[in-house]
């Protein structure tokens, strides 16, 4: 009861929003106030996100491109198929050949 009353108090809420916090993602050095915390989670490079083509792995956001290129089991056949049928110069003209 008492805690709920505290949190519903607008002035106290403002104080809480200005508490110093740090990002909980391992390796991230972001520090700021609580108010900015949610905004940081979206672009945080150290956030663990599920592989975006669904191989089931959790990958650091900053490592996702590398995962898709080199380590993703779901992407492997696409990757090999691209390499077989196109040289590097052709790949540049068609940035997403595997998804067409
Ligand atoms: Zn972070
Ligand atoms: Zn994957």
UniProtKB/TrEMBL annotation:
InterPro entries: Znf_RING/FYVE/PHD (IPR013083), Znf_TRAF (IPR001293). The keyword Zinc-finger applies. The keyword Transport does not apply. SUPFAM superfamilies: TRAF domain-like (SSF49599). A zinc finger (TRAF-type) spans 40-74. Residues 40-74 form the TRAF-type domain. GO terms for cellular component: cytoplasmic side of plasma membrane. Transmembrane segments: none annotated. GO terms for molecular function: tumor necrosis factor receptor binding; zinc ion binding. GO terms for biological process: regulation of canonical NF-kappaB signal transduction. Keywords: Metal-binding, Zinc, Zinc-finger. It holds the Pfam family zf-TRAF. Signal peptide: none annotated. PROSITE patterns: ZF_TRAF (PS50145). This is TRAF-type domain-containing protein. It comes from Hucho hucho (huchen).
